[in-house]
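User: What would this chain look like folded?
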Amino acid sequence: MPPKIMRPYVLKRHPLQRLASPALGFSSLLHFAGLSSFGASYKYLIDYPTPINEAYGWHFQYLTILGLALSTLTFTLASLADLTSSRPLFRLKNRVSVLATPLEVLISTLYGALVSIDKELVIPPEFQLGLLPDISFHAVPAVVLTVDYLLCSPPWGIRFREALGVSTVFAFGYWFWVELCYRHNGWYPYPIFDVLGTPWRVVLFCFSGLLMAGSTEVLKWVYAKLNGVDHVKKA
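Assistant: Here's the prediction, encoded as structure tokens.
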């Protein structure tokens, strides 16, 4: 009788990944909760319309809503992976998360800093948000995506210079988009853009790109402290 061939054991998740994902359980509950919050945020935009609803670019003029769209894409892929146990969908989710998670951390950080100075720099007086919508737009995405990365994802292999390149391209791409909307609408989505001249806008977007790349490094550092270090890194 020929000897039985032993098949190599294949890990279902990265050895540093703390919790099972994709999987039914905490992973699927986290992603469902996140999508529920994101959906409520979109519903708020429709239920409480402002002139932005009829403007060129809709609410996607706001960095907050662009971040929300990326967060929604990330958690949609994650939920589908949970339901189907699809590794390709899970890998795609992790790739999108490398952009979406630092972006949401950037949005929460900038928003909190500017609000502490003057809330009307980011939201006109006539468009002020209630506490729950404010948290839903500006805090929940950063929190749930960070939890997803720290507990339900493998470590990122992206290096700082790569993160800086991606974040800088995204920052100046957003500036181009804002200026395009301004040409059609005649006003900026954020009042701070009216306060700053062009040179200071360049400084703001350069700083934002640097801060987003720094957010990537901080998240990687926290992941390493919580879960350990991957000595075989792949970008």
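Residues 80 and 89 are 7 Å apart (CA to CA). If you want, I can go into more detail on any region.
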